[in-house]
Amino acid sequence: MTPRRGWGTKRQALTTLAALSALALAACSSGGGDPGAATDRESAITSSPGNSTQIAVSENEFSINIANPPSTAGAYTFVVENSGSVSHDLAIEGPGVESRRTPRIERGESGELAVDLEPGTYTLWCSVGNHRELGMSTEIIVS
User: Domain of 59?
Assistant: First the structure.
């Protein structure tokens, strides 16, 4: 019994199609965004210390609004609400705090960032894509 003519070509086409589909699926699920942005979950801080002061933060396109910025050293939890239409996060860097950030926060969702602030100047920004360059950055001064 010999296979019908053309069956080998159809089998090769199906195998190739399956392989290309698997590659496309892998490419779509591999993430994306800014290749320079932190991607490991270890840098995403979500726990909040028991004795911290909560600071309300609102993010949208393309600004960060802090209701009552901290002005004295201590433990703080930034409670970040994304009131925009695209995903954001909140990153912070300053004395004793090196590039800590929330996970991505989808529109209408919120996240937390717990930090111990020492006296000094801190920069807060959104590390998603080019949001920082579009104006999603602010500074706070802690004494």
Answer: 51-140
